């Protein structure tokens, strides 16, 4: 099955997308996170992969080692677009990743 990585998949929108992908049953899903959270991983039931959004090479390695075909970004980009830009660069450099869905859904919850 194609592997879909959801960046920010533990947040509100990201979790909704993860749940929809899992319900479809046509994809293997992983979630890219800034910090490991074993409780969330157990609750959601898919691997949570800790990544450094400041390191493009690390992101490329993660995408390739997990055979990620598609990246869906739901990371918050309010004020700092560097994490998403680096994720885009990594997806472009990856020899496996073919699709990237950028985050247009940043919400200011304050």
From TrEMBL:
Organism superkingdom: Eukaryota
Keywords associated with the record: NADP, Oxidoreductase
Domain NAD(P)-binding: 8-101
SUPFAM superfamilies: NAD(P)-binding Rossmann-fold domains
InterPro entries xref list: NAD(P)-bd_dom, NAD(P)-bd_dom_sf, NmrA/Isoflavone_reductase-like
GO molecular function: oxidoreductase activity
Entry similarity comment: Belongs to the NmrA-type oxidoreductase family. Isoflavone reductase subfamily.
Name of the protein in its database record: NAD(P)-binding
Organism: Fusarium albosuccineum
């Amino acid at each position: 099955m194609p592997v879909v990585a959801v960046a920010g998949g533990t947040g509100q929108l990201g979790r909704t997308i993860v749940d929809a992908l899992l319900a479809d049953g046509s994809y293997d899903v992983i979630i890219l996170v800034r910090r490991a959270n074993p409780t969330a991983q157990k609750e959601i039931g898919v691997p949570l992969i800790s990544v450094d959004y400041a390191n493009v090479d690390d992101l490329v390695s993660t995408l390739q080692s997990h055979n990620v075909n598609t990246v869906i970004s739901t990371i918050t980009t309010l004020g700092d677009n560097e994490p998403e830009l680096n994720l885009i660069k990594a997806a472009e450099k990856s020899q496996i990743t073919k699709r990237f869905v950028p985050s247009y859904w940043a919400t200011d919850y304050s």
